[in-house]
Amino acid sequence: MERKRVFITGVGVISGIGNDVSSVSESLRELKHGFSAYPPFLDDPLAPVTLVSAPKDFQVDSEDFEDWIYPEKYRVRREVLRGFAPHGLYVYCAMKQAIEDAGLEEGDVSNEETGIYTASSGSTRLLYHNMSRMREVGPMRCSPTGIVSAISGTLSFNLVASFRIQGNSCGFSSACASSGHALGFAYDDIAMGRQNRMFIAAGEDVNYESVVPFTGMRALSLETDPIRASCPFDAKRNGFVCAGGGAVLVLESEEEVLRRGSTPYAELLGWGQASDGHNVAISHPEGHGLIRAIDKACKSTGINAGEIDYINAHATSTLIGDASEGKALEGVFNSNGHRPKISSTKAITGHGLSLASALEASIVSIAMKEGFTPGSAHIQNLDPQFEAFNIIRETESKPPQIALSNSSGFGGANVSLLFKKV
Amino acid sequence: MSDQTTTKREVAGAPVPGSEELLRDTLKRCSAETLEAALAYRKTGDVSLVSVVVLGIVARFLDPDVADKLRSGGDSIEFMTDLGMDSLTMIEAIMMVEESLGVSIKNDELLNLRSVGDLKSFINEKLTGVASEEPKTFYSVDQIASIMPQQSPFLFLSQATVSEHGANGSYLITGQEAFLEGHFKGNPVFPASLMLEALGQLAVFKLIKNPPKEVESTIDSSEIYFTGVDSVRCHRICKPGDTLEMKVQVKRVRDPLAIFSGQITVNGEKAVVTEEITLAFKTEDASASSEESANGLNGGTHSSNGSH
Lengths: 422, 308
Prior knowledge:
The complex is a heterodimer. By secondary structure, chain A is an alpha/beta fold. Chain A has one domain: Thiolase/Chalcone synthase (Peroxisomal Thiolase, Chain A, domain 1, 3-Layer(aba) Sandwich). Chain A has helices spanning 21-30, 39-42, 78-81, 86-102, 106-109, 124-137, 146-150, 154-162, 178-191, 208-211, 213-216, 226-229, 254-260, 288-301, 319-332, 346-349, 356-370; strands spanning 6-14, 35-37, 51-53, 114-119, 169-172, 197-204, 245-253, 266-275, 310-312, 341-343, 390-391, 402-409, 413-420. In chain A, a hairpin with a 3-residue loop joins strand 12 and strand 13. The longest helix of chain A has 17 residues, at 86-102. The model of chain A has no long low-confidence stretch (mean pLDDT 97). Helix content of chain B is 37%, strand content 22%. The N and C termini of chain B lie far apart (65 Å). Chain B has 2 domains: 2-128, Non-ribosomal Peptide Synthetase Peptidyl Carrier Protein, Chain A; 138-289, Hotdog Thioesterase (Thiol Ester Dehydrase, Chain A, Roll). The radius of gyration of chain B is 24 Å and the shape is globular. The model of chain B is unreliable at 1-13 and 290-308 (pLDDT under 50). Chain B has 11 helices and 7 strands. Classes of the chains: A alpha/beta, B alpha+beta.
């Protein structure tokens, strides 16, 4: 069976670098970061971390959703809102944007040929709160939506119900590769003709319980200066900054694009994945899994690595992780004489974990449509091991033709996605 | 001194169960009137305040337009059908009632609280220990259809609550009923004779589900027949879109006859009133073995209990 072509026709973003496509685009062109000191960390002497990347205009820290403050234009009904984790609200708003951006009518969203794949790790904060309350007052006095708002399927439960999704639906949970898997399998469903349209919805909380545990892993940068805190490929990088927010992409088959007469952001050519089989939390030092993921993406799409002219790297600003990805890129590209442009937009967005791949797919899509290639910010002293790469420090006003986006998660799960300018 | 320390810690930490602080927090999104009534109830135990608290809590979960309906609708307003609440919202409201008034409501009790009146009288009863109304059990259309001899398209009962002395039920006239095409041409009116039929069906359902104490053996559900109706008055034409709210009450029972009074209202307006509907029934003893003499005291010998 011939594979159908798949296009990205809508994007919605709620993030530290902007709460819509145009402000995200502006931040990318000017390389403005989205970091700020998070007040609850400042109040807690035991929390050594200071910075987060959190969406502005949202106050969703309260365990009581009726306390939440968010932009008036989104107005969520109570019986919808009560099932959300904090990131559920971010993603709901991003979904509204994506639907409008793609020009979808109600009937385009709710039908048998339209599905949704989500990526979220649940809400540790709500789980913790619900369990504490249950111990205090007993289960019969706990919120009836305590489970559906907190466990890791929360995005799927809520979005499928509130947007009346009737097609395929499933939640992905492979840590920082989650939304890469969601995008990949959604691509497959459309390419194979199982669905005409798929939403990919990803999100993460950004609060005490979602962020501080990563300091125990020594994964976060404890810097207070944003430029020093998130600086992928820099010699002094020392960990990442946690990002929360939501990103939603609309994927559609070529027939749907033609039928509706929409102008896509980009074509999603395909994807590849492979696992390190190495360590529970540390990527393979030679980037073995990632090399195979990139190879598979190329092979399945018929793209030669030499045709790729931009790589949106996974690089989160950790010592080991960036080095491992460097080895993989060297193996696939430099050792074969290719020097595509490389940047890590995590320098300004921070690391969105389950959200990361969908946020970066959104960034690549926006860049291709609007005609720029985002730079890699905050590099003051390039780590010598990356000297052979063409890491671009500023945003260039020329779009990539074929772009690769990498994501790697705990356990050594690697996903590579390939995009083509239309 | 140690007492003081304890108190301090409790105030600083989680609110003490039953404390005024917790009550204020629980009711923080309710009207000031609701909170005042709950505080006053705590102090005085005055049961007349209960309905203010209950209504205030329900209103807090509703959109403003629906809240108006609650205020104007009285006790017959149903949470799900009239106010659009789902069962999760019901649980949220019930938890708040429990916390505010210091009662606890079990899952199976929750299922029978369909209307504002149900909830108010239920809470009243919990608090005073005096039943203001007899206990009721709710049945859905599937539960009704599974045991009634009448079936679609001749079943005119889509939900019912049954108690010892009677039953309430309802039926929405959908407009799809085939007979409306001819009754009347171009002017669909639900026939008065079928309204009596509907009341009769509700009475049949009551006999099957909650047989009168006077009947000592099991009533055979396939052997209940309509024998008479007295003093019928029709007050209102009923059309598609109207919901017939039916009520029958047991007047007297003398094997093999059961006599009910009945009435139908639509949106609170009287539609049909009848002083007597008479049903004739057979008990399973009588229909299974009429040649064996049954002296009335052997009702328990057949092991068919629960077959309904």
